[in-house]
């Protein structure tokens, strides 16, 4: 018999032990990251786990989950669920038990959706999870067992241990990236790779606010970054690259590190960082650091290879320039209120196209 219980019923040490051992799980399944994500505005944790009652309550599945409510008309529109990392199930379950656990997960998701008037649930599978990294043949979206609509995309992944060593990594950079790194060196920039502490938080958040103004984006709550610079860092899940021009910090980049891989996670910088090539220089020095530390991969972020212009093309070109390869980024969604979600989807498309203005 299998039972669904909220994350609050599970000691953090037991939850994290499962996240550490399940090959389907990555850092997003850890309690520190779930606590940090819950610090976002209009967001509440709804994570749960599945236990095997007949086997001393052994944890057999983790489901990282948050409820995100809209800023307006939440009573009518309802919120949506986000599961970054998706369900992670114990790898040694018999096939029959595996299916029962999947059914238990779906039943609990349905109950949460009904209770909170959820309109859809979005799932993603971490490209850096050991299970995905081990794939050597074509496979369907792992979320297909949960009857999701496929929303898969792709991510830039850089192998950090090429046969030619650090020189191979340098040669793997595109001409644009090598040019930027050399320019940063001429500009006299310096880099320090550290484990972030609360002492750096004020500088980071000041740069974060400047970054948001520059890109016309709403800032994240300070509590979110406080969780990163304190709890996430204390659990050795984060490394930070601090880029300076003289004595002035111009860019701070956070990398999420777990299961011998790293993810280019959050970045905050001032205008001078763009002019002095601080962000490019920081990533290159991080690549060198992670290579020397023996890590296997650096994920540079979601890819947009089909973008021909605009912000997505700029982001894709930047991430691609560090020599990564395209890997699948499996995603999917369940629509609980399809008619409403369809109407909202049309409205979002109209806003993006400008037809609604």
TrEMBL record:
The keyword Cell wall biogenesis/degradation applies. Keywords: Acyltransferase, Cell shape, Cell wall biogenesis/degradation, Peptidoglycan synthesis, Transferase. Residues 176-301 form the BioF2-like acetyltransferase domain. Coiled coil: none annotated. The keyword Protease does not apply. It comes from the Bacteria. Belongs to the FemABX family. PANTHER family: LIPID II:GLYCINE GLYCYLTRANSFERASE. This is BioF2-like acetyltransferase domain-containing protein. It comes from Thalassospira povalilytica. The lineage of its organism: Bacteria, Pseudomonadati, Pseudomonadota, Alphaproteobacteria, Rhodospirillales.
């Amino acid at each position: 018999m299998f039972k669904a219980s909220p994350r609050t019923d599970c000691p953090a040490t037991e939850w994290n032990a499962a996240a550490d051992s399940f090959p389907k799980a990555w850092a997003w399944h850890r309690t520190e990251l779930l606590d940090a994500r819950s610090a976002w505005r209009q967001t509440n944790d709804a994570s749960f786990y599945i236990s095997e009652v007949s086997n001393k309550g052994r944890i057999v599945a983790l489901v990282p989950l948050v409820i995100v409510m809209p800023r307006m008309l939440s009573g009518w529109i309802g919120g949506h669920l986000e599961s970054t990392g998706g369900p992670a199930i114990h790898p040694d379950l018999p096939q029959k038990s595996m299916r029962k656990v999947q059914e238990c997960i779906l039943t609990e998701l349905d109950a949460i959706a009904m209770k909170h008037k959820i309109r859809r649930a979005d799932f993603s599978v971490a490209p850096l999870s050991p299970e995905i990294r081990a794939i050597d043949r074509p496979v369907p979206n792992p979320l297909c067992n949960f009857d999701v609509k496929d929303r898969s995309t792709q991510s830039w992944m850089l192998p950090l241990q090429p046969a030619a060593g650090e020189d191979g990594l340098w040669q793997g950079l595109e001409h644009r990236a090598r040019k930027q790194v050399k320019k940063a060196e001429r500009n006299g920039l310096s880099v320090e790779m550290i484990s972030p502490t609360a002492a750096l938080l004020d500088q980071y958040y000041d740069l974060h606010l400047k970054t948001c103004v520059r890109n016309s984006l709403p800032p994240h709550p300070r509590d979110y970054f406080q969780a990163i610079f304190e709890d996430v860092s204390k659990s050795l899940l984060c490394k930070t690259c601090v880029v300076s021009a003289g004595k002035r910090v111009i860019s701070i980049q956070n990398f999420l590190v777990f299961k011998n891989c790293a993810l280019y996670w959050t970045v905050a910088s001032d205008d001078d960082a763009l002019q002095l090539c601080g962000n490019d220089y920081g990533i290159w020095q991080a690549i060198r650091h992670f290579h020397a530390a023996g890590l296997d991969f650096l994920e540079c972020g979601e890819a947009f290879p089909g973008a021909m212009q605009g912000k997505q093309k700029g982001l894709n070109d930047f991430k691609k320039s560090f020599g990564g390869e395209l890997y699948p980024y499996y995603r999917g969604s369940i629509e609980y209120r399809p008619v409403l979600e369809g109407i909202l989807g049309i409205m979002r498309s109209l806003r993006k196209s400008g037809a609604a203005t």
